[in-house]
Design a protein that fits this description.
about 270 residues, Spore Coat Polysaccharide Biosynthesis Protein SpsA, Chain A, two-stranded antiparallel ribbon, about 25% helix, alpha/beta, 9-stranded mixed beta sheet, 7 helices
């Protein structure tokens, strides 16, 4: 393994507070992060990938059915005192910017921010973790067409992020965010302060944290990191879960706890 760059992010924050209503009825009593993919909960795929890539501390922001999340972590990761859970009591009335506010005190050094429904292959993270440091690095992928649900990204000629929004026009859209961001120590400070300031305005309670990233991009603080060719998966709808299940399925002789790199799927759109 190559040596990590300076300010290697020792911590990851996973935003898993929501119910995942678009996956009903599967999420009626089970949070999205606990849905199984090939016999393994979504959040376990995430944690295992992070641990395998040298992330030593993991903070999970949970809300809906938090007791079930706590039980899973206590059972599966009982030897890992560095995996902790924070409670977001606003999960029913707020979007993920509120979860970032809950975790703001964890943002004192370089860290990764990961959406609770994004699965990563082990081979995706090293390129992000060992590249040249930037204040904020947004992971993006590319495709020929984008739909209304994609978090669209506009880039400049040098690959810096200009803006991030689901509402970008086709002419403005160059890529999509995959739900993974790296922050340096300075980027963490900028983001934390912006989150604290934003939630002084009550109308921002329902905002996405990527609105903050877009605003910081306008100040030249955000670079992009292409994961083109890497395998990743975002689970929003039942169809996504069905596709992930079919592509993550193992032979019966293999353990669901030991995923092979070739079993990851990059889910289109």
């Amino acid at each position: 393994m190559t040596e990590p760059v300076d300010d290697f992010p020792a911590r990851a924050i996973i935003l898993s507070a929501g119910q995942g209503r678009r996956l009903l009825p599967l999420t009626e009593n089970t949070p999205k992060c606990l849905l199984p993919v090939a016999g393994k909960p979504v959040i376990a795929w995430q944690i295992d990938a992070l641990l395998a890539n040298g992330i030593k501390e993991i903070v999970i922001v949970s809300g809906f059915q938090i007791g079930k999340v706590e039980a899973l972590i206590a059972k599966r990761y009982h030897d890992y005192s560095n995996i902790r859970i924070l409670f977001n009591p606003f999960y029913e009335v707020a979007d993920n910017l509120a979860s970032c506010w809950i975790a703001r005190d964890e943002m004192r050094a370089g860290f990764l921010l990961l959406n609770g429904d994004t699965l990563l292959g082990d081979h995706l993270l090293p390129g992000l973790l060992h590249e040249q440091e930037a204040p904020i690095t947004l992971c993006v992928d590319f495709k020929t067409e984008f739909d209304d649900d994609d978090m669209k990204v506009q880039l400049d000629a040098q690959g810096r992020v200009k803006q991030v929004s689901k509402k970008l026009s086709a002419g403005e859209t160059d890529a999509e965010s995959i739900g993974l961001i790296r922050f340096s120590k300075e980027g963490a400070r900028l983001f934390r302060e912006a989150v604290e300031q934003a939630l002084r305005e009550p109308e921002k309670l329902g905002s996405w944290y990527l609105a903050i990233i877009s605003a910081l991009a306008g100040q030249g603080m955000v670079n992009s990191h292409s994961v083109a060719g890497s395998r990743w998966c975002e689970i929003d709808f039942i169809q996504d879960l069905q596709k992930a299940e079919s592509h993550f399925a193992f032979k019966e002789t293999e353990s669901a706890d030991q995923p092979r790199p070739d079993q990851w799927l990059r889910m289109p759109g």
